[in-house]
């Protein structure tokens, strides 16, 4: 499975939902809090060209936006499709 990085901010419902989805599918990921880490923020901006979390990077695929928008793309990148 490709490396997964999840860029988050504290108290973010969409961030928490993505973490639950990844965990449900047995995916291991690295979480980076962009609010307290300027390097993580700069990395997220380079990869996704956005300034707002959550951003999910699975290999070369980068998704951003609310959980409902990211969910089908994350599932496809994980090779699931449903659930």
From TrEMBL:
Matching entries from InterPro entries are given as: Glutaredoxin, Grx-like_ET, Thioredoxin-like_sf
Q: Give the matching CDD domains.
A: NrdH
Query: What GO molecular function terms would the record report?
Result: electron transfer activity
Tell me the SUPFAM superfamilies matching this sequence. Answer: Thioredoxin-like (SSF52833)
UniProt GO BP:
cell redox homeostasis
Residue stretches making up the Glutaredoxin domain: 4-61
Q: What is this protein called?
A: Glutaredoxin
Q: Which organism is it from?
A: Deinococcus phoenicis
